Amino acid sequence: MAGRDKHPRTILFVRDADVAVADLRQALAEAGPEERPGLERAVEIAERAARASDADLRARWVRERLAAVGYEGPVDSVKAIKHLREAAPGLGLLEAVQLAKSAAQGAA
Fold first, then answer.
1. What span, in angstroms and rounded, lies between the C-alpha atoms of 73 and 97?
2. pLDDT tens-digit readout, 24-49
């Protein structure tokens, strides 16, 4: 295709759960007794999210995009890749295929 970039783009997934964990821990340190149980639970949830692997993050991102467009089939099918590219404008074919394959491998 004329004018198309022939080099795959790098997709960066940013992790910021550690910031949320730190903020929640600070809030917990300053909390009164009535707030502590809820904040303790919130810290547990945020810590679990912070431990998610890169593959888990990519798989969740793919599934969220497909769910947003109403797609419920296999995440690595041709239809899924088409819907993923529609849900994420600018996502190249190669990147969409790689993400879909990664998400399918993460499905257990």
1. 15
2. 999 999 999 999 999 999 999 999 98
Give the separation between CA 79 and CA 70, rounded to whole angstroms: 12
Asked if 42 and 67 touch (Cβ cutoff 8 Å), the reply is no
pTM greater than 0.85 (yes/no): no
Q: What is the DSSP string of 46-102?
A: HHHHHT--HHHHHHHHHHHHHHHTT--S-TTSHHHHHHHHHHSTT--HHHHHHHHHH
Q: Which of 43, 42, 34, 103 is nearest to 73 (CA)?
A: 103
DSSP code, position 2? T
Token pair belonging to 37: 């149980």
